[in-house]
User: Fold these one by one.
Assistant:
Number 1:
Amino acid sequence: MIRLTGRARAHSNIALVKYWGKRDSDLFLPMTNSLSLTLDALYTDTSIVFDSELTEDTFTLDQIVQSKEQTEKLTHFLDIIRAKAQITSKANVTSLNFVPTAAGLASSASAYAALIGACADALGWEDDHKSLSKLARRGSGSATRSLFGGFVEWDKGTDDSTSVAIPIDDGQWDIGLIVLVLNNGKKKISSRDGMAHTVATSPFYENWVKTVPSDIKQMKAAIYRKDIEMIGEIAEHNALKMHATMLSANPPFWYFEPATLLAMERIRELRQAGYPAYFTMDAGPNVKIICQKSDMTAIMDELSHFYTNDQMITSAAGPDMRTLTEEEWAESLAKKEGSNEYSH
Ligand code: 2P0
């Protein structure tokens, strides 16, 4: 019997210049570069055991054994890893999502970044985050960026070996993000389907592709200058451009809900009140506020008329993916079991 065990933690990320569309859906090569901020507050811990005696892969998420269908994507990903490692053993995968109560924010980004970290740990691979980001990409595009902390660019590259994440800045300065949880239900259209439909049918899509390079360039200059107004303005414009490609798809679709639009208005009001605060939205109704870390408490105060404390999750920039010791994994399990503060 051969058993190989590994464990890792990776944090979620929010794109400030979005990834929306693939040019190769098998290799997950994106149409454009994207750029994100990794979040300290949201992460996934994953443990994997490759075991030569197993007959199939199993996947347990937040202490619930997942169905065969729910395990399919994971198996597809593990097949890529097994081929690279030249092994055939099936695996038991256990993941814990650390996302504050009822946030509905579990992300495939932290999931696949933690999984590739755990695989590398189990297989004794050299800890090369860049190479691991390429492999995480094969599980989910946004996972490419979650290998690194702070601000991260995903270079679209020219092929499998060059489509990779690049750390830009550690984000350890006065920038933070508040996630406004407006609806924690499961989204109606997956990002994967939504982006494929947009690429295929939106007449605006080619303009999206044309304008992203300049958003990336300006965003990098803004980060370099730690210019929060400029970061926020580019991020808002970029998010709305992405959502406009969905409104112009045929048939059209959108992730916004009335509460989303209201939140956008309220963030504009925050700006009028003097806070540099900007919004961005992904493939769902929740709104993320980009702001100064030092303003987060005051902004939460202002917004407390409209939202409960549970609906506002504050985060600073998060760290790189890292492996976990056996003790740290045991602590995570205990935290999950013992705490009401976290749920799935
Ligand atoms: C992003 N999103 O850049 C964009 C913005 C959603 C909107 O990456 O098909 O779950 O697994 O590559 O990574 C969500 O897409 O899609 C996403 P796949 P993924 O964060």
Note: Residues 15, 18-20, 28, 34, 108, 140-142, 191-192, 282-283 surround 2P0 (CB under 6 Å).
Number 2:
Amino acid sequence: MKKIIVIPGDGIGQEITASAVEVLKKVDAKFGIGLEYDYRDAGGTSYEKFGTPLTDEALDACKKADGVLFGAVGGKKWDSLPVYLRPERAIFGLRKGLGLFANLRPTKVYPELINSSPLKPELVGGSDLLIVRELVGGIYFGPRCESETKDGVEQAWDTEIYSVPEIERITKLAFETAKLRRGKVTSVDKANVLAASRLWRKVVVDVAKNYPDVELNHLYVDNAAMQLVLNPKQFDVIVTNNIFGDILSDEAAVIGGSIGLMPSASIGELTSLYEPIHGSAPDIAGKDIANPMGTILSAAMLLRYSLKEEAAAKAVETAIDKTLADGWRTADIFTDGFKRVGTAQVTEIICGNL
Ligand code: IPM
Ligand code: MG
């Protein structure tokens, strides 16, 4: 048996993970994988029950699992809590605790949704890129000061630190992934200004020597942000640090038309975690209108990367393609002339297409 820990989290996290589990059950019945599910809380939901956004027990359960399926966390209700109790802390606790050093965020343009993209169809059509974001280092985890007084003036600071092994690890993964794709890596940094970026670039160049068949280029992050919307087709794999990856992956999500469809995999040494890149959308929670496709596609990545069930992963992706091709649309991607459906119904349709 393969143990999956499901962490629905807050807001629409509940309904979208329920959808993804339904799809996993269907695919399991078809491919005979032998999946077992166990549920844990995180975020505001965990805070309400246990007084902390992530319990040690939940983290331990994840460590022992074959894969973690995560919904989303956060909500207005918990915004005024001190930083260490906020729902987002659960995400950092899981990333650090599970050593999830690489976040893979693929952007794919669905031909059926090309008109939902705010960008020109001829510009985005055919783009297919993968952002490989470093996830447990850099300014997100460096020393910081929330407030101090210097010469009578209040200030605050954060620190960007990267070590050679940290950069090597993420770069290798990016190159290995590029070998399985179109063989191109773009490293994004700010080496014209930041010391940590200069080390980043040096290490990337060194690692690249072991991958003569993979093409490497470098872009400064400001230019990369512009190139993503000017000419997204030039990219195959983008490798970058934690904060640049955070920013660029939201931007890249626009290329695909809807953030509701974007999955992600956070790869760790012990286990890996899969989640949609959108948030918990408390305003639409429990209304049966959220798009579960990003989470279902994240479950497909779990099948692919953690369970090595490529055929099952493909089957899930194909079922989503078919659902879209048949004209079914949740509210976030609905346009005139298509068939509008809610979370439960679209899940049923996807299962039917498996
Ligand atoms: C993401 C999110 C998180 C991040 C937030 C919720 C802390 O934006 O996963 O991209 O900044 O990493
Ligand atoms: Mg983000």
Note: The two ends are 22 Å apart (CA to CA).
